[in-house]
Specification:
It is a single chain. With 254 residues, the chain is of the alpha/beta class. Helix content is 42%, strand content 17%. A seven-stranded mixed β-sheet has the order 3-2-1-4-5-7-6, with helices on both faces. The longest helix has 20 residues. The chain is globular, with a radius of gyration of 18 Å. The chain starts with 9 loop residues before the first helix and ends with a strand. It binds zinc ion (ZN). Zinc ion binds next to loops.
């Protein structure tokens, strides 16, 4: 006999979902490196931008270590990556890209970095902040960890006016924080209509083709493999929520 009182996995997950988010008026996505934002939330941002959201992208480091080529000049690479990021942002329909240009790979969590995140949030005044999940287990990249912590603590600081009064900016409380690469996602965005934009934006980062996209810039065949990998990724992201193509997040209400 079948026990029909037991949950069926998928519906248990659906029950845990917080209410859907309305398209925000303003969103601020913060990534450690050029292309991190696109991998984590490019589809969501493209979808929101198309619906009228003012999207700001903030890239913390200069991306100057993003190469396996021993002949690479770090300064040249950093300049290339700023241009690639602008092209990707345009492809997503973002309103603005900001760069902090901290040295790639050497980012450290500090009060200075927390203050900077507070300043950015108070200036942009987003309804939703998106970034790396600093609680993700076994996250190797130090810049991803440092960025995630500084964003979380920057959200708290931005919210409470007694933090960093020297900034002389009014406090601001986002309605939600969405963290990508979460071990325990509880929020999903359907990106079916924006998946092509996410891929196109990622492919704007040509200098990263070899390191993160399987040589997608070198041949049509490689690019097809990369798109297939991303399609599978988006399917896996959405599976727990019954969506075909999604980005998943841990959602926090500040
Ligand atoms: Zn990164």
């Amino acid at each position: 006999m079948t026990d029909t009182s037991a949950g069926t996995g998928v519906y248990d997950e659906l029950d845990k979902r917080p209410a859907p988010l309305a398209v925000p008026d303003r969103a601020l996505a913060i990534g450690a490196h050029p292309d991190d934002i696109e991998f984590g939330s490019g589809g969501t941002l493209a979808k929101w931008a198309a619906a009228g959201c003012r999207v700001t992208m903030l890239v913390v480091t200069d991306g100057s270590k993003g190469s396996w080529d021993p002949q690479t000049d770090p300064a040249e690479l950093a300049a290339t990556r700023i241009a690639e990021q602008k092209a990707a942002a345009d492809r997503l329909g973002a309103h603005e890209v900001r760069h902090l240009e901290r040295v790639d790979g050497e980012l450290e969590y500090s009060m200075d970095l927390r203050r900077e995140m507070c300043r950015q949030i108070r200036e942009v005044r987003p309804d939703v902040v998106l970034s790396h999940d600093p609680w993700q287990r076994y996250q190797l990249h130090p810049d991803h960890r440092a960025t995630g912590w500084a964003v979380m603590d920057g959200v708290i600081a931005a919210r409470d006016h007694l933090f960093f009064p020297e900034l002389d900016l009014p406090a601001h409380r986002p309605a939600a924080v969405l963290l990508w690469s979460a071990d325990e996602p509880d929020h999903w965005e359907d990106i079916t209509m924006a998946f092509d934009d996410k891929i196109a934006a990622l492919l704007c980062h040509s200098s990263q083709g070899t390191t993160t996209m399987g040589g997608a810039e070198l041949s049509d065949e490689n690019r097809d493999v990369f798109v297939a990998r991303m399609t599978e990724w988006a399917r896996n992201q959405g599976a727990a929520a019954g969506l075909d193509t999604a980005e998943s997040f841990k959602r926090i209400t500040p």
